Amino acid sequence: METRSARGAKDAGRLRDLKFATLEEAVVDARQLLESGYVRHGNWTLGQICWHLRTVQDPSIDGYPWFFSLFAFLRPIVRRTLMPKILRGDSPRGIRTASIFIPANELNDNEEVAAFAESVERFLQHQGTFHPHPGFGHLDLETLHRVHAAHAAHHLRFLRSAGEL
């Protein structure tokens, strides 16, 4: 029987070394995976990943649920310790996300890649203020963009183009 830690070490060699400078690069990557087909080395499909990315990204404009601010006092610590790791592409694996950000099992890859692309365009075109990130608090546009791009790279690295095998 393969243990979780053994499987994690084995899958680590299969994960792509992925870093996006912009969210547009994440959209290009998602579209390429959709076109080529892909192999999963994680729990989620391309559609599930794109749904998750969009669902985490959209509240930057629309606002997060009120209960996300309950632990706002921890933001300076999380910002100082976790954000540098995320921005350099060293996102920790296995951290559970809030249930509202967990995708359904049956999502359409085509629809979710298109919805993610629309969400990215909306984010990039937004002229107003952005809501505080639940973990990092208020961020300037450039840093928020980098956080979302790093988040996209973290998840999309679990998919490898079928053509790369």
TrEMBL record:
<protein>
    <recommendedName>
        <fullName>DUF1569 domain-containing protein</fullName>
    </recommendedName>
</protein>
<dbReference type="Pfam" id="PF07606">
    <property type="entry name" value="DUF1569"/>
</dbReference>
<dbReference type="InterPro" id="IPR011463">
    <property type="entry name" value="DUF1569"/>
</dbReference>
<dbReference type="InterPro" id="IPR034660">
    <property type="entry name" value="DinB/YfiT-like"/>
</dbReference>
